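Issue: copy button drops trailing tokens. Both records pasted manually instead:
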Amino acid sequence: MQAVVVDNVSKKYDEIIAVKNISLEVGQGEIFGLLGPNGAGKTSLMRMIMNIIVPDSGRIILWGDPFKEKHKSQIGYLPEERGLYPRMKLLHHLQFLGEMKGMSSKEARNTALQWLEKFNLADRVDRKIQDLSKGLQQKVQFIASVLHHPSLLILDEPFSGLDPVNTKFLKDILMEMKREGVTILLSTHLMEQAEKLCDRICLVNRGEVVLQGKVSEVKRKYHHNTVLLEYTGDGNQVAMLPGVEEINDYGNYMEIRLSDKTLPSQFFKQLGGLNIEVRRFEATETSLNQIFIDLVGETIEE
């Protein structure tokens, strides 16, 4: 069964078209990536799935039915903007939110304590939300979204404010939830995380679908002849070599797109004539980040 079916949905605010004829399906127990630049319509679409706002046209089906009251307790939502009450104490806040989702006071408290222990926040139960760092508030907001054991988890920029250690920790939690059968709809600007986590993705831009499908199929379709180069020395000469079409230079590390006729082995030999030391050279598939840039980069409004 599909957990979510979005069928030809559109939404307009005054004269601005936020979502235009979007259709997609999210399978039960998969991680589905909803990707796109700021203002692409992702948040509007997620809010329509939760019935916070209503589509102007089209329909949304959850577990085979149009939205019903029972679905509210089956969905967990982490918004991009902070949705916490700053003056409430941490444990009381989570207990309150759990009760709002139909949990008993005791169940909400005990479950909150379990999650706080898991996130190394057990020593902060009496701290006010406003006294926590942004990263800790993001952890609390995530706990609030999963406290009631949702079947569908909708995450809007869940890694915002998290350092690399906590980003990995949250990634591990999401994979654990997927193994337990939870359906996860994930919106993120971190293409590397989407590439690793998601089974399928949908890329939207200006309210319309640009591409969608399995991550492996998308990468195969938009594959370029790409190599990774890690080096020391003067990398400015690399762009002058025959066969180089485009370079993303990060300083001592490059993603290089070669022409279709240029073999990576040929290109590697050419590097021997430059004043650089090659520390790593790898022929690789095109990253999801590069595909994102190729498809929507020139259309993003400043």
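Record 2 (pasted manually too):
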Amino acid sequence: MSAARLTRDIWAGDGGEGAKYWLSVFTDLKNRGVDDVLMLVCDGLKGLPEAVETVWPRTIVQTCVVHLLRNSFRHAARQDWDKVAKALKPVYTAPSEAAATERFSEFQEAWGKKYPAVIRLWENAWAEFVPFLSFDVEIRKVICSTNAIESVNARIRKAVRARGHFPNEAAAMKRVYMAMMSLDPTGKGRKRWTMRWKAPLNAFQIAFEGRLTPAAN
């Protein structure tokens, strides 16, 4: 979320998404007027936290909680997914970091021997998971998942596969742009989402006092 304004851009990657790549993207955004970013929610992309800290030192990097859960299931047997999910819920719904630490210790005691890789996954992600716990419930609803972004990506992939082949990068970028614009051709969806954001924006105003300003239309 930018404290300066909202912006929509498309970058063509070269197959890598390391710190150097993300640094170029963030620097481009900053040079075009994004002076501050309150929070960046991601799913463990390599090099991204280091890059955002270089460009916007005050930005909070938050791990996507839904991705953390999905990755946990990769290390567990299918028959245990429901049990693992139920055992982890007290961790990410805890009222504070201290409470989450206690709940995670209980999870570790119950499942650590059977699934040590799940424990290691959460331990490695802990520093970028816990910011989530210090925010109001309205903010938690917004930053819990990157599913909205994934939905857009799915539409883009569908449009690209339907075309199959592109003569050059510009043609591919045009296809991606048209797919994104087709998501809300009338602008009604944007208005609905604006209404949904009123409560979270009020919570963000309090949590990041003095840094959040209305975005230009």
